[in-house]
Every structure is written in C-alpha cells, then in structure tokens.
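Write out this protein's structure.
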Amino acid sequence: MRFKFPAILLLFFASFFMMHTHAEAQVGLSVSPPRVYYSLNAGETGSQKVLISNVSREHALNLSLTFGDWKYDEQGNNLMFPPDSLENSCANWLTVPEGAYLMLEPGENREIDLTMNVPVEVAGMDNVQTAMLYVTQMNPVDGVDAQGAAIRINVRQGIKVYRKGSVPEVKRVEIENLQYDKEDGALRLTFRNTGNIWINGEINTTLFNQSTGKELSLETADFYTMPGDLRLMHIPLGVELEKGTYIATVMIDYGDVTTIEAAELQFSYE
C-alpha cells in the first residue's frame, strides 16, 4: 500500500489541526529541520540534531518515533512506504537514543540525536540512500473545529533523511520531451535526473509571440528529484494568449550557470 502527498510538503499530518488553529483544544507539534543530510562512507557513523517541540500550552504529548521509506512519483508527489521497502532505503541504519517513545510536557522542547550507522557493505544504489523519520502523537485530544463540530486531534510530522557516499557527485538533468497541449492550455515537459545525487531547482518558461514580438514569462516552478527519477511536469500558460506563432523556451536551473538545461518549442495559438 502506498500513500500520496504533495511534493512541496515536508510535514505530514494525520489530522485537521493545521486547518483549525483556533480549535478549542490547542495541540501542536513542531519538528525541525524538515530535512537532514549525512555524508558518510561505508562503515561510518554520524549524528544530526533534531528538535521536537510541544507548542501546546495545555496538553502533554505522548509521541512515537518511527522510520519509513519514501520516493517521488513522476509528478513529484511523495510516495510513502514501510521501512526497508525500497532498494535505496537507509531506514534500518537509523537510531534515536530515546528509543521508540517520547513524552513532552506543555511547552517543552527536546533535542534528540538522529544517528546513522552505515554498514561496511552497502547494497543497491550505493551513493544515495533515503528514509523518513516520523514523530506521531499517540494521545489524541478532544477538540472543536471552526464549525463547532467535535473532533479528535492528533498530529503527525515527518522529516526526510538523505545520505550520500564518497562517489564523486554527478549532477545532470536531461530534457526528454517538450510539447504543447492545446486542449489543456499547457506545456508538457518531460525530464530525467541522470546524475547520481539528488537535484532540486526551478523551471523558468518564456513565450515569445513571433507575430507581435511580445514576450511573456510564466510562473516559476520548483522541482525536486532523486537519481533516476523521471519527471512529468504540467506548465499551465496561465493567461489567454493572443493569436500567433509562439516559441516556448524552457530552462531548468539546478545550480550555477554551467548546469542549465534548456529546450525550445514552436507552436501556433489560434
């Protein structure tokens, strides 16, 4: 079984708490940072600090600390899996000294060490591994939502874990296709992370009307990928275009000026 979450979300909730911040029962959980990175060779051990905070003024939190796997789908959404399900999982390499459970009094903060022990022999994708740390409230609280309905509030948050090895980094994105979808009023961009490291960046698109000489810049889109990921991006035009022949220029920026991938497409708008 797998579950989908939007790519830009780094916090995962099992309730409507963040939608009802004025609910009668004020319960809140903060976990930071949203991502942790390890640069460790085979056989090495390292730790990163994670701050867990109970932002409630009234309710203690009984929390469980668990691990899982994740990956992106072709649209950039997060897919969640049980620990050690994926070839590039490092979930079983992670430990916390507090064990599986933690209790925080109202307003209490706790900094924990998230420790990674890399095996001497690393199987699968030996340069990049990932996992997820989940912090889940185990004692739901009764509350009332903005419409006055009774609800049970509990909170779940997660942070992504990344590990890279000693293999020299290769950052490369290659565009495979760019086309105009007339019915949908959008551009369809297909590209792939052909490097050996995670890559994020932004996509900038301009439209040049050859008939009028006018140029239009579309909204910038962010993207996140792991090695081997194929990404299918929908780039809406966003406005009603004037009639004419257009040249669409798409630029994928994921670093300095030497790491920009670009493609052009000519299409007619009538």
